[in-house]
């Protein structure tokens, strides 16, 4: 956006879709960087990763037991066991391997390479463990009984070729596509990258989101409430929601209703923000300080000037007043949300979460929350204001395909929000939804 003073476009009523489109048109994916594996968790891969070596890289045992030739144990039973000469141990990580010849066996541990000459592994439970007695329940540790690597072992069952052997390349072959660009790296993906030897990976970093709540009436949880004050819940809710969306969240304690203080706070926070989110102070009251502060920030002459902030009224409930634009020399995106707790949270889900996901470089299909169609299960019809898209808290039952309202429509009802797992969407042209009607449901879980 070009540098100019903030605009109050409050005379026009914007649709939810128009506002979201403007947000996503301004947000650009963050530039890729190379990160160590654990630092890349939660990030989006920007390159296809191919497998350099087969996984596993060699035939290895899936059991603790004995590496044998199949001909030597054919027809073996407890009554007529196959008696084999133990020629040594093969442990995981073994380098030089003994060759298993006719009538011989090697003790082998899980993950150890299959020695030359061996065709199968018989679990130790199918043998006497070299004790000369009945079926063994385990192996004697090599450190306490090194003689276990020699002597004889009685095998009580036969084994087919390749029994209990993990074949080389049975997981992935060299040259296979391990992970495609666009993959979000979770623990299993990190494990695969490590298994194929990748120490670093090229990704888009997790966005840094700074959350500021405004209001002189706000007190931090754990402190005493004075007359006329309330606890600051919005900054906690939005910081947690930003983390849930995939961001690194920085929560700034509530800023008093003073434009200079808020302006200085924003200036301080720009250094660590890929996205700024404010809550409160965007309506039409005399103390709606966000408008005042952002007017001076974006239109001033100092080093944090630049960008455009538009303040709008949206055809939605809750969350009618909204602000959006870019700010500072790097044109950092900023979303100014209303202060009522439910309005703030619903606005986050509709506009901020998609912005975070777009910064991460996720495909369009994964930017917004998924939605389904569900049948309203309620005692009475749900009312909705004409010309507004209403978002009501709901409890979705996937098994029955129904959704039930949770709490009322008030934008201050935090308890109801805490028990909801979805948002029921009532379109702009609908003023009443009867029980049994089908409607769109945005899934929050």
Short characterization:
19% of the residues lie in helices and 30% in strands. With 445 residues, it is α/β, with parallel strands linked by helices.
Main attributes of the structure:
alpha/beta; 445 residues; seven-stranded mixed sheet
Descriptive report:
β25 and β26 form a beta hairpin. The chain is of the alpha/beta class. It contains eight helices and 29 strands. It has helices spanning 16-26, 70-73, 187-195, 234-245, 259-269, 289-299, 341-360, 414-418; strands at 7-14, 33-36, 44-45, 49-50, 60-61, 65-68, 82-90, 104-108, 120-123, 152-155, 165-166, 177-179, 200-204, 208-214, 218-219, 230-231, 248-255, 275-279, 309-314, 316-317, 321-327, 332-337, 371-376, 382-383, 389-397, 402-405, 422-426, 432-433, 438-443. The two termini are 34 Å apart. The strands form eight sheets. The chain has a seven-stranded mixed β-sheet with strand order 1-19-21-22-18-14-17, sandwiched between helices.
Helix content: 10-25%
Low-confidence stretches: 1-6, 298-304
Number of helices: 8
What does the main sheet amount to? 7 strands, mixed
Q: What's the alpha carbon Rg, rounded to whole Å?
A: 32 Å
* Shape, principal axes of CA atoms: elongated
- Structural class by helix and strand composition: alpha/beta
